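In the design runs reported in the main text, the only information available to the sequence generator was the tokenized backbone. The following block is the verbatim input for one such run; it is reproduced so that readers can re-run the procedure and compare outputs position by position.
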């Protein structure tokens, strides 16, 4: 059984997609052992509680400085003893110490086709605003391993989504979530839980 810990900051629709996929067995061999939010008001915390999943808040507001917050975050992560940490809309830079302690054991969902529209400052709705400003016709989502950089880790899976004429950032965000994020994030977790994700020559290979 792969023990996963899901980290969230907001609405938690990706968390919900994971919960649903575990419950309807689209994700197998997996147990959600907990949810961590950096934001006490995140609706994602309610979603976890509704499904009897242990949910805790670790907020930077409760610590005197970033390094104390980072220590508390890592301690909380460790307390769940996860096999995989899933960043599902977690808008916090992962401390280097945590990346080093969990090599290839942290994955993130990003709402664009990396390496487009990613890196520092590209999160949530902003990603879609920038994509629309640039006039792209295709966007999508990426699931990648987390390394020390921002959105620079090895790409595991991507899915493309069309931009439609007249899209608002919100409309585009919703389409990218429905058609890509809620599909590929559960899919990747299932593949990892079933030992199908390997790293070969610095690239991710999905075993058939
Ligand atoms: C999702 O669109 C996710 O891809 C994005 O935040 C949103 C969270 O929504 N993450 C990033 O932008 C990370 N750089 P959710 O709370 O409803 O899952």
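Verbatim output:
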């Amino acid at each position: 059984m792969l023990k996963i810990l899901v980290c969230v900051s907001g609405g938690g629709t990706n968390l919900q997609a994971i919960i649903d996929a575990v419950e309807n067995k689209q994700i197998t061999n997996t147990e959600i052992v907990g949810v961590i939010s950096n934001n006490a008001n995140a609706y994602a915390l309610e979603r976890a509680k509704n499904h009897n999943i242990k949910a805790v808040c670790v907020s930077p507001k409760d610590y005197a400085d970033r390094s104390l917050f980072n220590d508390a975050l890592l301690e909380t992560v460790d307390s769940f003893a996860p096999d995989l940490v899933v960043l599902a809309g977690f808008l916090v830079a992962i401390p280097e110490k945590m990346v080093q302690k969990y090599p290839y054991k942290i994955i993130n969902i990003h709402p664009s086709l990396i390496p487009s529209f990613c890196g520092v400052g590209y999160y949530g709705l902003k990603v879609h605003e920038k994509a629309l400003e640039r006039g792209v016709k295709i966007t999508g989502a990426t699931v990648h391993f987390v390394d020390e950089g921002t959105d620079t880790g090895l790409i595991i899976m991507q899915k493309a989504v069309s931009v439609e004429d007249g899209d608002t950032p919100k409309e585009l965000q919703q389409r990218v979530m429905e058609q890509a994020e809620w599909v590929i994030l559960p899919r990747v977790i299932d593949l990892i839980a079933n030992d199908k994700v390997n790293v070969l020559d610095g690239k991710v290979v999905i075993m058939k």
